[in-house]
Design goal:
The protein is mainly alpha-helical. 77% of the residues lie in helices and 0% in strands. The chain contains six helices and no strands. It is rod-shaped and about 85 Å long.
Length: 183
């Protein structure tokens, strides 16, 4: 009878730990999906922004192409480890685009440009909030995967730690923008 009671407690505990891991894994998946939605909204906005700037600064082709290339690289990233550095490069390219736009007062005054810039700024805030939430959920999940006794259940059922969403060091640096000055 005692052996049955111990078995019931062990099985019940395993089920509780397993369900807890599943819940946290699903929270992490949902948090990543939220980041993905925000990033896709940003990707959709960027071509409009580039076209608007192109109308005023069409001879700045290199900067415009670097934004599109960074956007394409970021869109092709499929994991947080790939997305972090790609998003860092995209942010840097967008900063270059905004720095370029500052030298065109008529562009700065254009309502369409200002609206796109405001939308992008709002999206950047939403992405940062989603990134913070995702990383917090992943931290909690990864901690649980490593802690005793949950780690025993995690190992037995194939739960693996998740990657954080971080830009690689040095890849968020703003590229140098030269408007024809001395090198």
């Amino acid at each position: 009878m005692l052996a049955i009671a111990i078995l019931v407690v062990l099985v019940g505990g395993t089920v509780l730990l397993y369900n807890s891991l599943v819940k946290d894994r699903e929270k992490a998946e949902a948090a990543w999906a939220d980041i993905d939605v925000q990033l896709k909204r940003r990707y959709d906005l960027i071509p409009n922004l580039v076209e608007t700037v192109k109308g005023y600064a069409s001879h700045e082709q290199e900067t415009l192409e670097s934004v599109i290339n960074a956007r394409n690289r970021a869109m092709s990233a499929s994991t947080p480890a790939e997305a972090g550095p790609a998003e860092g490069l995209l942010s840097g390219a967008l900063k270059s685009l905004f720095a370029l736009a500052e030298s065109y007062p008529q562009l700065q005054a254009a309502p369409g440009y200002r609206d796109l810039q405001a939308q992008l700024s709002d999206l950047e805030d939403a992405i940062q909030n989603a990134r913070r939430y995702y990383n917090a959920v992943v931290r909690d999940y990864n901690t649980k995967v490593q802690q005793i006794p949950t780690n025993v259940v995690a190992r037995a059922f194939g739960f693996r730690q998740r990657e954080f969403f971080e830009a690689a060091e040095g890849e968020t640096a703003v590229p140098k923008v030269d408007f024809g000055g001395e090198s």
